[in-house]
Amino acid sequence: MTEHVDVLIVGAGLSGIGAAHHLQAAFPGRSYAILEAREAMGGTWDLFRYPGVRSDSDMHTLGYRFRPWVAAEAIADGPAILSYIRETAADAGIDQRIRYGHKVTGASWSSEEARWTVGFEHAGVPATITCDFLYLCSGYYRYDEGYVPEFAGMDDFRGQIVHPQHWPAELDYAGKRVVVIGSGATAVTLVPAMAETAGHVTMLQRSPTYIMSAPSVDTVATKLRQWLGARRAYAVTRWKNVAISTVIYQLSQRRPAMMRKFFRDLTVKQLPEGYDVDTHFNPAYNPWDQRLCLVPDGDLFRAISAGRASVATDRIERFTADGLRLESGTELSADIVVTATGLDLLALGGIALTVDGREIQPPDTMAYKGMMLSGVPNFAFTIGYTNASWTLKADLVSEFVCRLLRHLDEHGYSQATPWPDPAVTAKPLLDFQAGYVLRSMDRFPRAGSRAPWRLGMNYAQDVITLRHGRIEDGTIRFGRRTVRAATAPTAERGPEQVTA
User: Fold this and answer.
1) From residue 104, how far is each of 30, 119, 201, 494 by CA, in Å?
2) Is the keyword Methyltransferase assigned to this protein (predicted)?
3) pLDDT for the residue numbered 146
4) pTM of this prediction?
5) pLDDT at 113 over 50
């Protein structure tokens, strides 16, 4: 017979391990499993192996609420974050619930049985598992490939072209001329890291990005740990950093001219006198229309000041045998070109959903509180903040899912379905101007013009709404089983609709 679990989590990355921890802490007796398509835990932090890979948020907010980050470095490298995730899983026994190499391909909901039948492939063999609640923690980008624009002449280049998402372990760039195409978080991480041993590294950008230096060690957090102990100091530091990032974001939205000058003045101070800041570090868009990049201890600016790295702001005309020709006529010689050109987004992990035989097209749905889909029962997914740490939102989504499951238990319900409101106007799920978002948002669920159909981007507000707000808010419809399911020995009665 088909195996059945109460909750099925898809993805064993930062979100999935956190979701499992919240779930088993709230419901020790509830059965669950984690299906992971890859052969390792850690998601992003296991996949990306490029030089210098690190968090672009401080670890007091990127870390889990329930597990203090106690290392001195507030901005941590990839291996440290991966160890943190794995230790969290091992300490709670979550690692025993992960099934690697299980790629979920589709999920079908039956209202008659009030459960999901989830299809997956393992070692090339298709199989199914059923669950009462399906929880996607698979992120929102493709793990098997990154985004690379079509540049003319790429086949003419005699050097090596590398995408950060598939970094060759054996790549030797010592003494080489390197061009990194891009200006986002990956590029500003790669450039100073490679510049330590490369002959020279050029960051080639089509347009500048706002970049802000942050200390790699949070001295306030260090002092608080001495005074308050690790757990209380972590909570205080977390809220301190949330407050600081919120103020910067809100001022950027409301006083963009002031914040543009603020970021420019900080950049001028960290670069040599006379450096052309307005060409290379003064974006055309307003602060926080795209994500602000953090560089620990100004490492990018230090590499530029030392002459080990440089920035070229121009457009690519074509690749040549020896490098790149730019539209300005400039030739950039290169032995290695790194295409840090972004992610290719993937809605809902590429999983095909059906509800009672009806195919669900993500763009035809609306996201309830940024975590459930209109017309789709017993289903949740995690998308983190674009203006703050991913885990801040992931933790709140997990807490809300646990609250929802407890509400179902207490009232004898077997299903919960957000119901669409035709009066709500559809909006893009992510109101964000980054290229990787604009390329892909038409494949994703929509957000709505008002609550609870908006994806919140304010942590303090979401704490109130998701941690303490009413479950029965008039939007979710609840139901009870009325007939006995036949697909698994633990099945109960089928659904009887109850509208809250």
Assistant:
1) 22, 6, 40, 25
2) no
3) 87
4) 0.93
5) yes
> How far apart, in Å, are the Cα atoms of 470 and each of 399, 410, 466, 467, 473?
13, 14, 8, 9, 6
d(CA 7, CA 16): 12
H or E element at residue 224? helix 219-228
- Coil vs helix vs strand at 471: coil
CB contact at 8 A, 387 and 210? no
| Angle subtended at Cα 105 by Cα 23 and Cα 478, rounded to the nearest 5 degrees | 45
pLDDT tens for 336-385 read 999 999 888 899 999 999 999 999 999 999 999 999 999 999 999 999 89
Residues 6+ apart with CB under 8 A from 472: 407, 478, 500
- Backbone dihedral angles phi then psi of residue 451, each to the nearest 5 degrees: -65, 150
* Residue 388 and residue 470 in contact, taking contact as beta carbons nearer than 8 Å: no
DSSP letters for 238-293: HHHHHHHHHHHHHHHHH-HHHHHHHHHHHHHHHS-TT--HHHHS--SSPTTSSPPE
d(CA 170, CA 179): 18
Are 73 and 43 contacting, i.e. CB atoms less than 8 angstroms apart? no
Looking at residue 433, what is its pLDDT? 64
Which residue in 299, 308, 311 sits closest to 270, CA to CA?
299
- The tens digit of pLDDT for each residue in 161-170 reads 999 999 999 9
Six-digit token string for 147: 């985004």
Amino acid at 311: V
d(CA 60, CA 45): 17
Q: Write out the E strands in 356-400.
A: 358-360, 367-368, 372-373, 379-381
Domains and CATH numbers, the chain: 3-143+344-499 (3.50.50.60), 154-339 (3.50.50.60)
CA distance 482 to 494: 4
Looking at the predicted structure, is the pLDDT value of residue 495 above 80?
Answer: no
Q: Which residues contact 405 (CB under 8 A, 6 or more apart)?
A: 7, 26, 27, 30, 133
In angstroms, the CA 314 to CA 47 distance is 30
Phi-psi region of 214 (alpha: psi -120 to 50; beta: other; left: phi over 0): beta
Question: d(Cα 451, Cα 499) in Å, to the nearest integer?
Answer: 19
DSSP string, 41-63: S-THHHH--STT-B-SS-HHHHS
